[in-house]
Amino acid sequence: MEVLLHQIDAFADAPFSGNPAAVMPLLTWLPDELLQQLAEENNLAETGFYTSALPPEAGAPPDNSPAFHLRWFTPAVEVDLCGHATLATAAQILDDMHPGADRVHFYTRSGWLRVDRDRDELVLDLPSVSSVEIDVHDEVPRALAAALGVRPLRAFDGTDLVLVVSAEHEVREAHPNFSAFPDMNRGAILTAEGTDADFVSRFFAPAQGIPEDPVTGSAHAQLTPLWAKELGRTTFVARQLSRRGGTLRCTLAGERVRLSGRCRRYLDGVVRLPD
Q1: Could you give the CA distance from residue 171 to residue 269 in angstroms, rounded to a whole number?
Q2: What is the pTM of this model?
């Protein structure tokens, strides 16, 4: 049995930047254990698997654009939302399968998601994620700050735990000690106002098999409304300061967040599985 494999860098400004995702189209769903083994073998932050068959709970697609069922796996677990693998999957579908289309929909664990083509960029539409400010001296934020080696000004609780520091260089120069991370089955975001970008961040999720993610779309679904409230604006240029780095153009649109970026294809191949 052969399965196609595409590796695509999402939110990539240049070759070897952005966040690489594996994209694997399937005729029918393989067993979950095998999907997890494939994601572990791919050894990227995320592998996106998709089929054209929608589950009954999906209902009718939002419009007549191409629609698919999409799932995301890290090397360790299946996750509820992944922005960069969704963007990469859309890039592969729009380039290879539907070159005349300007939109694709995905039914996912987070409901229906949409990606639009905008000239040489793709625009990912995600649900906005709210944050609640918490005491920066509480046990978990304090332990996370110690593990990152930073002194945060503020802390926010949402899908992921957010620490805000005073300057971009503190985000860039943080040296995480993953063995000291607090026991939490979610991500940690370190963020600050930027110099060349409106805000910058780094994202860590060791409990999900991702020590540091290069560029994290789902994190910006939480960061965009947070910084919109702080800065009194709804549009931003954001930069994730991982070693690879990546740029996202972020817009808060009511209860949705739109993230724009470029994708660069790295490889196309074939995975051979035992029959």
Answers
A1: 36
A2: 0.90
46: annotated active-site residue: yes
Strand partners, 18: none
Dihedral Cα 74, 70, 90, 5, nearest 10 deg:
60
CATH number at 27 reads: 3.10.310.10
The alpha helices in the chain, defined as continuous H runs, are: 32-42, 83-92, 139-148, 168-173, 217-231
In residues, how long is the chain? 275
Q: Which residues contact 175 (CB under 8 A, 6 or more apart)?
A: 148, 149
| Residue 230 near residue 166, CB atoms below 8 Å | no
Residue 275 scores a pLDDT above 80: no
3-class state of residue 77 by DSSP? coil
Task: Say if residues 4 and 19 touch (Cβ distance below 8 Å).
Answer: no
- pLDDT single digits (tens) 62-100: 999 999 999 999 999 999 999 999 999 999 999 999 999
The answer to whether 137 and 146 have CB atoms below 8 angstroms apart is no
Please report how many Cα atoms fall inside a 13 Å half-sphere around the Cα of residue 139, on the Cβ side.
3
Q: Are residues 245 and 137 in the same domain?
A: yes
> What is the tally of structural domains in the chain?
2
Residue-range definition of the domain harbouring residue 159: 132-254
State the average pLDDT for the chain. Answer: 96
Report d(CA 161, CA 176) in Å as an integer.
15
250 and 267 inside one domain: no
As a whole number of angstroms, the distance between CA 244 and CA 220 comes to 17
Query: In a 3-state reduction of DSSP, which class is residue 253?
Result: strand
**DSSP reduced 3-state for 30:** coil
Residue 86 sits in the same domain as residue 199: no
Do 245 and 153 have their domain in common? yes
Catalytic residue (choose from 46, 168, 170, 212): 46
